[in-house]
Amino acid sequence: MNDRLAFLRAIRANPDDDTARLVFADWLDEHNDPLGEFIRVQIELEPIRYRVDNSRALELHRREEELLRAHGDDWIGKAKKIGADWPEYGPQFRRGLPNHANLSLDALLKHGRTLFSACPTLRELTVFGIATRGAELAACPHLAKLDILEIADWPTEEDAKALAASSHIKQISHFKIWLGGESEDHHFPNELMQRATDDWPRDVELVQLLNDRGSFWATIGTLNRLKGSKVRVSRPCDMLFPLDGDLGYNMRAGRLPDGRAALAAGSFGDWVLVIFHKSGLVKKATKLKSSVGVGKGFDALEKAVTNWMDKKLRLKPELIWVKEFFRHGLGVHLWSDPRLLADPRPDPPDRYTHISEWRSRGGDARQWYEHRNFVIYWFNNYHADWRGAIHSS
Predict the structure, then answer these.
(1) Which residue, 88, 223, 245, 333, has fewest beta-carbon neighbours within 10 Å?
(2) Measuring CA to CA, how many Å separate 158 from each of 192, 201, 322, 351?
(3) Helix 187-195 vs helix 216-224: angle between axes, to the nearest 10 degrees?
(4) Which has the higher per-residue pLDDT, 54 or 196?
């Protein structure tokens, strides 16, 4: 075994020990390998990764991005083919080394051997596109190499039966299961936990992606009553989303003269002002009829909206934090289209006829909630990042 592989295996055996990573970084420095610097950058960045107001975090982000652009493909070797079509999928670096991969079941079955060979420190997988194909995932031997498995999908009861019987999953210590807001979405975790044997992982995280609690809490109660189970809950939809001042597209976030946080937006049809509580929840939403018709053009609209914000509202641009909302056509959402998410499947008996649509969306959602990307909606979906700035539409 060469020295480099020995370091990587030692780190994989103790994934939470940064000392081993820093010793490896020293060794890399001695061999003029830029991965050493990258490890130090990410270790320092991790606890402040999403601190928009921290200048050191912004500096570290810039260096992280520079190093990844220059060397990232070299560091993951042949595993880069996984992200050939979807660059945001495949291995993700944390604390200097590949820790997690987000990929479809098809990609896992096709590239799994290459992925784990190229990234021996990998310990977590998020797999989407498994609905109605649970038996294929259950038979995958690469699951035995994981500490954490996340099912980024709403699978069926039959999928649960197959996974509960899988010998490969018994090595996993932590299991993440997505839940939506519909009661039938809860059949999968209930069936899975009811059928699981005593040596099956009982540390389960239910990830609720919709702001509709529905029968969610009943599901938690049922699972917690099972012998030896430890069920935790995460609600990405409850996070605070940053909005950074002048967002463009005739939208502005900031503070009114009395200090209240607000978001204003104008279009040819309506102008909307949303005022928030300190908690980030909506306090008041007002809609006004636009004074600018379509015939006057976009320049006239922008001028009128800016004048309204500056002189009427006296809205000072600055960073504010808000919870998910949708009022008068203006909103902030975890997902790119909340209307699709609210109804991800048709009613029975054809509830799985749209599975192919879900397969194309399951991977996207992991990017939203894990990497702090989100969507600002104003007659279109505008994709924003953890800094609160719009980067695409």
Answers:
(1) 88
(2) 9, 19, 39, 14
(3) 0
(4) 54
